Amino acid sequence: MSDGRQSILGANGQIATELAKELKKNYTANLRLVSRSPKRVNETDSLFSANLLDLSQTSRAVEGSEIVYLTVGLPMDSGLWEERFPVMMRNTIDACKTHGAKLVFFDNTYMYPQDSRPVTEDTPFAPVGRKGRVRREIAEMLLGEMSASPSRLDAVICRAPEFYGPGLTQSITNTLIFDRIHRNKKPKVLLRDDAVRTLIWTPDASRAMALIGNTPDAYGQTWHLPCDDNRLTYRQFLDLVSEVYAKQFSYSVIPKFQLCIGSLFSKKVREIQELLPRYEHDSIFDSSKFRSRFPAFSVTSYMDGINQIQAEQGSGGSG
Length: 319
Known about the structure:
The protein is of the alpha/beta class. 42% of the residues lie in helices and 16% in strands.
């Protein structure tokens, strides 16, 4: 355990919540949670209210920290992403450089090609759509700082594919499958049920990020966070859900034309249009680099993850 402060910027999401639990459990009790309205996860957490769009507030939030985790999320709104993410990344970078803090950035896969090719940490960026281009911009901003000579920033990128998980995990899989089961509605799948998916269990993502953040030689690199290598199609995933819940769930596959029509009337549906290619193709997210470096890390199997969600929800749901 360390006495040095570790701070989480964007501290209200599920990833940040699980990260705070893991850091307190295994690394430090000196935790600062930062957001506009932060809420305590552990009794010993200190809270700091800050707007990351403001450099001076971000700098005060980072001051005194040894390690800073940037886990901030925004609603699925391309305009909001373009307006805010680059500013928040720039402010966080500058604050960490000013105060000599290490930076751990929690990233997603939107900047990668949206096809069936396996993606590794070395896959060139080829974003599809506005949100993907924003994610490329902020990743490249940080990579530029990391590769500068001499570099004034010790940083690392932790990248995760689509989530599924407990609590308030926000993802398409949780929304269309587990949330609908919980509301006694039929699960849904986007576009096709026979494409292979790579999903990451949210507590695994947070545990792995805490481990990387507290491993000095992991810095200066990008890491794919670890997933169950037993990749499933949504059809197989829902068979497993039915097995765990002990009831056979029928589900519907939402076709592309229906989503195109829906986008004319719903901003929410319109905002996911650029993500649809990832559901048309196999998703092969390669995390072998992490497993080679951290062989003792235990990845949660899909069976165990679904069991935990079922236990949390109870056995409700319609067949």
